[in-house]
């Protein structure tokens, strides 16, 4: 038989458990904005020291990595400095290509991603920059590979980004070739899970080949134009004669992203030049080849011009020499008859008898 | 200082260390999805030494922290941690809580159950749910259990843990 104390103890436990479950369910079923507001307030007050602590740890980890990268770059640079200057120029050009921050000409805020050990971590990411750094809601978040998502809530010191894996993520997009446009959303397929995206609303007549890059179109006012969203890896499903839904491999991995850039620029900015796709790189390469060819042809033209000039000079010189050369004097009757100028005779030095010709 | 008060202080000290490890050491470890969850270790250690109601409140608080840092579906983590804390406290009376491996098993099972409830409450697709529960959650449960063993072995005097099987 249980005592009254044990019964009350057990009843108290049950009540506490029921209250906690009820509060959790209220949080779960309440509008998302309420939950986000509470999360923001907790993050900015009670949890602020812990978030800052994790931020320091993340910075420490990434600083070591950055130091290794910088050291490797320095070693490579010192090695290459012993090589050809053209290699150095090429290295610099590639470094420029890879440095996303240099490519984006509009303002942005760099942020560390503070990953959490929960299975839902990929849907939202906790970022180390907040309103103090200029971050606000709906700011796009990008990684060097492409689009990550947008800022859902911005606190004073930290913010939460909704990634492409979030069920409510949508972005208006078009193919890099420009022949198809639609809306990209997380995959709704049960079997494929959350690791893929879908390119929806593509007209049935517009077929998109596998491997085509899909970029944000800039419509909708949140994501700027030209950020890579994913690459087509196949057809997910199609409604006969109406639309095709393509499966996309996301451009950026939310699970492994350690640093991101939060774009605080106006959403009408064009980011196409900042993310050179394969085709853009190909175009750049072709362009550089064309430039080289053009330079070669210019050099060829210069060489040809120089040769032509030299030849014409030679011809002119030859003509001049020909003109100055003594021509065989044709006996002019007038000259024979009455020479205007007496014929030249060698000067005779004074005091020296002129040579006389003697008949043999 | 009375033994009960000393025990509470020792428990509080270990929990504080685990919280610091969670926010300062875990980010320096490998991938976040399989790195040990020190907050869950703290919750399990606390729950196994508390009454079910207090354990449920502790679970709710830990869940609220998790929800604030990963607000993918606010309330899901609070629900999951509340259930795990409550069950861990009840489970103590069914098993030998002074055994090191039983403690580690509790931690691993608690983490897997936490992930199950969290994924179900946050509305995860079936394929992703299977991958999480069969690949990532067991891996994280393993790493978390290993760190729990280390922590319990380091503070075995305080937790009255038997090292013999």
Could you walk me through the main structural features you see in this protein, from its secondary elements to its overall organization?
The complex is a heterodimer of chains A (360) and B (165). Chain A contains 7 helices and 12 strands. In chain A, the strands form 2 sheets. Chain A has a 6-stranded antiparallel β-barrel. A 6-stranded antiparallel barrel of chain A has the order 6-7-8-11-10-9. In chain A, 31% of the residues are buried. The radius of gyration of chain A is 41 Å and the shape is elongated. Chain A folds into 3 domains: 11-163, Rod shape-determining protein MreC, domain 1 (Thrombin, subunit H, Beta Barrel); 171-254 and 267-275, Thrombin, subunit H (Beta Barrel), CATH 2.40.10; 277-308. Helix content of chain A is 39%, strand content 21%. By secondary structure, chain A is of the alpha+beta class. Chain B has a single domain (3-159), classed as Arp2/3 complex 21 kDa subunit ARPC3, CATH 1.10.1760. At the A-B interface, α1, α2 and α3 of A face α1, α3, α4, α5 and α6 of B.
User: Residue ranges of chain A: pLDDT <50 for 5 or more in a row?
Assistant: 329-360
What name does CATH use for the topology of chain B? Arp2/3 complex 21 kDa subunit ARPC3
Q: What is the rounded Rg of chain A?
A: 41 Å
* Poorly predicted spans of chain B: none
From the structure above, extract its key features.
heterodimer; A: 360 residues; alpha+beta; Thrombin, subunit H; 3 domains; six-stranded antiparallel beta barrel; six-stranded antiparallel barrel; 7 helices; 39% helix; elongated; disordered C terminus; B: 165 residues; mainly alpha; Arp2/3 complex 21 kDa subunit ARPC3
Architecture blueprint of SSEs:
The complex is a heterodimer of chains A (360) and B (165).
Chain A: H1 4-29, H2 32-44, H3 48-80, H4 85-98, H5 100-103, E1 108-114, E2 124-127, E3 140-143, E4 146-154, E5 159-163, E6 171-175, E7 181-186, E8 197-203, E9 213-216, E10 228-239, E11 243-250, E12 259-263, H6 278-324, H7 333-337
Antiparallel strand pairs in A: 1-2, 1-12, 2-5, 3-4, 3-12, 4-5, 6-7, 6-9, 7-8, 8-11, 9-10, 10-11
Chain B: H1 3-25, H2 38-47, H3 52-69, H4 76-92, H5 100-121, H6 126-154, H7 156-159
């Amino acid at each position: 038989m249980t005592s009254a104390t044990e019964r009350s103890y057990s009843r108290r436990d049950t009540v506490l458990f029921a209250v906690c479950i009820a509060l959790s369910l209220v949080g779960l079923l309440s509008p998302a904005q309420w939950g986000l507001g509470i999360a923001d307030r907790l993050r900015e007050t009670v949890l602020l020291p812990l978030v800052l602590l994790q931020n320091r740890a993340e910075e420490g980890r990434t600083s070591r990595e950055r130091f290794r990268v910088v050291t490797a770059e320095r070693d490579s640079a010192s090695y290459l400095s012993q090589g050809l200057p053209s290699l150095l120029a090429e290295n610099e050009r590639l470094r420029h290509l890879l440095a996303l921050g240099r490519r984006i000409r509009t303002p942005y805020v760099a942020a560390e991603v503070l990953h959490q050990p929960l299975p839902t971590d990929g849907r939202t990411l906790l970022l180390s920059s907040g309103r103090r750094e200029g971050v606000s809601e709906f700011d796009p978040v990008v990684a060097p590979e492409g689009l990550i998502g947008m800022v859902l809530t911005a606190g004073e010191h930290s913010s939460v980004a909704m990634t492409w894996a979030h069920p409510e993520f949508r972005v208006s997009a078009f193919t890099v070739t420009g022949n198809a446009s639609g809306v990209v959303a997380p995959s709704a397929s049960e079997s494929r899970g959350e690791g893929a995206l879908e390119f929806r609303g593509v007209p049935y007549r517009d077929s998109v080949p596998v491997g085509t890059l899909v970029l944000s179109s800039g419509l909708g006012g949140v994501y700027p134009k030209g950020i890579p969203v994913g690459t087509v890896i196949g057809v997910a499903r199609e409604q006969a004669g109406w639309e095709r839904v393509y499966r996309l491999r996301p451009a950026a991995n939310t699970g492994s992203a350690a640093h991101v850039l939060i774009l605080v620029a106006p959403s009408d900015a064009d980011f196409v030049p900042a993310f050179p796709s394969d085709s853009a790189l190909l175009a750049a390469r072709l362009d550089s080849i064309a430039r080289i060819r053009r330079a070669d042809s210019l050099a060829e033209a210069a060489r040809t011009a120089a040769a032509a000039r030299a030849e014409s000079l030679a011809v002119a010189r030859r003509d001049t020499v020909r003109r100055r050369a003594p021509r065989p004097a044709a006996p002019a009757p007038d000259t024979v008859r009455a020479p205007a100028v007496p014929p030249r005779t060698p000067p005779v030095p004074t005091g020296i008898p002129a040579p006389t010709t003697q008949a043999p | 200082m009375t033994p009960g008060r000393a025990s509470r202080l020792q428990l509080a000290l270990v929990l504080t260390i685990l919280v610091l490890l969670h926010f300062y050491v875990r980010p320096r470890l490998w991938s976040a999805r399989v790195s040990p969850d020190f907050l869950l270790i703290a919750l399990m250690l606390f729950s196994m030494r508390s009454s079910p109601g207090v354990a449920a409140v502790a679970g709710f608080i830990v869940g609220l922290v998790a929800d604030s840092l990963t607000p993918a579906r606010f309330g899901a983590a609070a629900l999951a941690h509340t259930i795990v804390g409550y069950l861990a406290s009840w489970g103590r009376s069914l098993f030998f809580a002074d055994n090191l491996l039983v403690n580690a098993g509790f931690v691993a099972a608690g983490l897997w159950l936490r992930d199950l409830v969290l994924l179900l409450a946050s509305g995860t697709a079936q394929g992703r749910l299977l991958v999480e529960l069969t690949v990532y959650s067991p891996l994280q449960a393993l790493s978390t259990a290993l760190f729990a063993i280390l922590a319990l072995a380091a503070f075995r005097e305080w937790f009255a843990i038997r090292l013999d099987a």
